[in-house]
Automatic annotation (TrEMBL):
CDD domains: PAS. This is Diguanylate cyclase. It comes from the Bacteria. Residues 49-128 form the PAS fold-3 domain. The lineage of its organism: Bacteria, Pseudomonadati, Pseudomonadota, Alphaproteobacteria, Hyphomicrobiales.
């Protein structure tokens, strides 16, 4: 599976939104409406992993607002991809880097679904750790069609 380290997100030019009038909360709501789209944080000092409801759903774990059971979460990841996960978090912490990777998660139906995680190292007043998002590649699109009522010539 692929692994790529990137320049930290903070080095990317921020998109202007003031003229649009869209809030951070609205952006998050729209992203989450499009697909399972979860947020997470790893506390480097304690090793605790905290995640939103969608991350729990992606990994088919019962929701809790406390630390996630990492043993159970890792058991859902394809055996060949588990070392990639550990390597990614180690490298991100060591190099204070951003990253993204694609891996397989047990779909609980005898197969695997493809998932992507994107994250970055954070060391600020809120503490050091890694923050990120995880989402499924499976598209669950809603299609809207319009009828053409114009007369044919």
């Amino acid at each position: 599976m692929s692994l790529r380290f990137e320049q930290p997100v903070i080095d990317k030019t921020a998109q202007s939104r003031a003229h649009i009038g869209i809030t951070d909360a609205e952006i998050v709501q729209m992203l989450a409406a499009y697909r399972l789209f979860g947020f997470w944080r790893i506390d480097i000092e304690t090793g605790h992993f905290f995640a939103s409801e969608d991350v729990h759903t992606i990994f088919d774990l019962p929701y809790s607002d406390g630390p996630v059971n990492l043993t159970e979460l890792m058991s859902r990841i394809h055996e060949e991809d588990r070392s990639l996960i550990a390597q990614t978090f180690e490298e991100a912490s060591l190099h204070r880097a951003g990253f993204h990777f694609v891996y397989r998660v047990d779909n609980r139906l005898g197969g695997y679904k493809v998932v992507r995680s994107v994250g970055r190292f954070r060391d600020d007043e809120s503490g050091s750790g890694i923050v990120g998002i995880t989402y499924e590649f499976v598209e669950k699109l809603r299609v809207v069609g319009f009828e053409d009522n114009t007369a044919s010539r």
